[in-house]
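Recap from last week: sequence in, structure out.
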Amino acid sequence: MSSKPFQTTRDFADALDAFGADLARWPEDLRQEGSSMLDRSTEARKLLREALLVHRVLSERLTVSTDNHLVKAILERKASLDQESKRLNAKEAAKGVAVVRSAMLKRGIAAAILVGGGMLAGSLLSQAGGGEAAGQSTTLNDITSYAESFYL
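Predicted structure tokens:
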């Protein structure tokens, strides 16, 4: 609305939209302005008649026949589905945690094997006295045979 209430019928229409067609329910200062606008404007009176018609149509009771047993069955089924959904969600979450734990364990074991294998290979190379630094080349077969003889 404008800074001064109801300078135009658009302002009056905005008030109808905001407060409804019953001027008795409007704030006091706007109610007085609305009454004044209705006294001086045929367009405002037309807007009020239209708003009253819309209000009446919308407020009429539409009777809908419902079967209480059907409503009860639908609500019970909904409650059952809600419970099942919660149970499945908990089960799926537990499965997800197990999968993650398993993957982390496998990665941890693989990392330990790689680190241990690297340490073993370095140890075997130094004990075999081999390597490029000594002017020799050590092969995987050399390391394997040395490991078998030393550790087994």
